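Entry 12.
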Amino acid sequence: MNVDTGTHQRDTVIGRATIGDQLRRNAKLQPSKPALIFYTTEGDREVHTYRSLNRMVNRLAHALSQQGVGRGDVVAIMSRNSPDYVAIYYATIKLGAALTGINFTFTAREITYQVDHCQPKVIVVESVFVDRFVPIADQLAGVEHFMVSDVVSDAGPEGWTRISTLVGDDRDASEPEAQVGENDLAIIQYTSGTEAYPKGVMISHRNYLISTTPAWQSALGIAPDEIWLFLMPFFTIAGLGSMTTLTLLGATLVLVHAVDPPKAAAMMSDEKVTIMAQTPTFYLAMTQVEGFEDYDFSSLRRCITYGGTVPQAMLDGWTKANPDVLWATYWGQSELTQLGSVGWFRSLDEVPGGDPTWIGKPVPQLEIAVFDENDQPAEIGELACRSPSAMVGYYDDPEKTAEAFRDGWLRTGDLVRIDDDGNLFFFDRKKDMIKSGGMNVSSQEVERVLYSYPGILQVAVVGVPDEYWSEAVTAFAVTQPGVEVDAEAVIAHCKRSLAGYKVPKAVHLVESLPIDTQGKILKRELRAMSKD
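Predicted 3D structure (tokens):
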């Protein structure tokens, strides 16, 4: 029997699968449930229900449509986390356009590159960042309108539209009528730019609805009753991606406009947070907050960590605060719409082999392989993936897209080890692998040994150009408060656990390590420091 499946229903609101449609459903199914609990920089608390959020989104969608934004267009935003950011995102994708977030630490040169590359029709800028755009506004390719997110102040240049004027009760809050399909782009996520230029990762509605969000439900156990302390900046895939999944599921996000460990600790206690995700660096910093042991973390069930080696001091501090917390180590990347691997543990004793580089096992929606430099299956090599969460490609960059998609696999650029049980252990980024004396050195392996030295709180290892070694293994270490550490003794400690070529040629004791807005250590800055 021949069945004409057609595409009509999937191209209309009757049967299509888009992210914006689920927000509309959540607004009807749980209208009074908090979607966002927002803390301003002044400490004011705002609650946005799913119904009020959806109305705000629809009003902004009509405003964007009047400014010419439609299917296939791009909207850019530079802002800290706020309800405005969430609303602009959903308004954009309800129209069939794609959102790109601009890192709010970017300079004019970096802003210009990203804008010229994806040519958004509209740019939304938080008021505190407007001064970065005014001098270059006339030079930005394709931009027709500027809008100001005025959650902090109503400052804005003449001619720029303030979001607050677009979301009042007198504005049209009906659902926008727009053609949107599951294969339309929802996000253009720019990579960190550690290579020559950042790449724009194209992510469709489909990725979330049939793969990423179901994976979070099954592998991470994320449910609608979650209260998530949300600290990841929205301009990252960890930020925008997690927000997308959580709002699709109907959970509650506690948003912080300006993030620091003391505020995070207080909000976790006050809002009865059940789950959060951050880098080991941030979790460790929270344990150093004055009075940390006095906060009420009894509601906290799970903590997800990513982007670095888990130090014992971090686990010790949190175990004292709440011994029942279940930890997840997580690996993912933009090219996989944040999808990756996950592993659960309560202490390092539960980690396979006690190896803190463990990143768990692939989620059900991910198929993996590990290849050596000759593209042969290997125990240690580059991680390659297949999944419905795989990116569409790199925006306007067919050559880089072809490099990433080879022989039926998405090449991640991450080096891992895989054991007989399918456990993955993060070895290093290919670009962070140190070439010393003709041998490959994993910075992660050296960092693991350094963390075992008494008194060391935080470490990072990089390769520094050297005439003899090509790259000299170099360590930077932060010590625990009040503890004196001798650099030569640390090197001697490494010699007892590492082959000679892996031992750091120098250990620099520093007060802090440079980090980005997520708490990830900026190794490029450490390399620059080594040259001074």
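Annotation: The two ends are 75 Å apart (CA to CA). The chain has a mean pLDDT of 91.
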